[in-house]
Fold each of these.
Amino acid sequence: MFSPVGISLAAGISALAGLVEITRAWRLVRVGKLATARVVANTTAEQEDDDPPPRLRFRTEDGLDVEVVERTRKAGDETRIGAEVLVLYDPRDPERARRKASAQLWGPGLVWIAFAALLGVAAVVQALVT
């Protein structure tokens, strides 16, 4: 079906993606600035989804108005349109802002790492079976 080498390669790529995401989050936490953002509806034309992720609109300390699409959807009061939330943004690249919440900062990297671990286990099982 699938070779252990191929599954191991996929696990390595997933682990690398997770490490990149965790490194980005760590850097954002280290050098990022806090701002208050308002959750606004995502009405972009390219979104064909029934429920697109919301946008966060905030102003940097330099006075630049920024609007970013959230990376993930999350149910709850803090995501309702008009709510105010805290965001961390990189002063050199405010477009890479993320909501200041553990799931938003660390979640993507941890999901990739978990996927890599599952693929690693699958590679070991496949190697033992063949």
Amino acid sequence: MTLDTGAGVPVWPPGLRDETPLPFAVWRVLHHVNGGRPAIEVARLARVTAPEVAEAVAQAARWAGRASQRGQPVTEASARVVTACLTAVLGPMGTFLVEDTLDDLGEGATLGTLLSAVAAQLNEAQVQAFVRGLRERGIA
């Protein structure tokens, strides 16, 4: 979405819901986006510039994509990515942790539940490293 002149009308990205968690800076802009207000008006109401409106909408789209991804069932491919990220943090124990967690969660586990269950077993530094790896691979 390009809004160089501020004349465009921003809309909520597909998949974005009221309950999608957003950083405050993004939420305060998206709060004013209603599909009818021009970007320049959204910018005025949110006290930002029109390019910042475009960036907030782009960030919201990324957040919505991640939220949607987390609700998907765990696939072999996503389990491999999670295992690779965790192994980078814990070494070979990462493989066992993911396998045990998937066994505990059973059939129909979502990516979000897997990530939460794995993260709950890590210390803060390990969680940060794990999340960095996931982000590099487009998961977190």
Amino acid sequence: MGKKLNRTAGKVRIEALQNQRKERISKAGLLLERWGQQDRMPVTGELELSEVDPEFIEDQMTAEVLSSLTAEKMRIVRQHWSEGLSAAEIAEMEDQPRNEIRQVLGFVVEQIADKVLK
């Protein structure tokens, strides 16, 4: 009976961790969408958000993580989240395999999730 209970508890812990990871990845995608919108429509004037506002801090951290990317990755990120191009469209424009573009986009989402949403 004890072994079965331990297995069940282990499965529950794994499922909880997987759900937390999915939520972080989803939130990272939303942060990148928000960054892309700001990149399309630069904010003019004073920001409504204060520097202690969690959204402001997340946006600042997202921008910092993105600024550390290589020029090639940044170009792909801008094309996807600012210009709204799909991975297939970017792959065609960049003359790269679609899978490589997807890997770059996935890497960026993981970086945002790990560094901004610890």
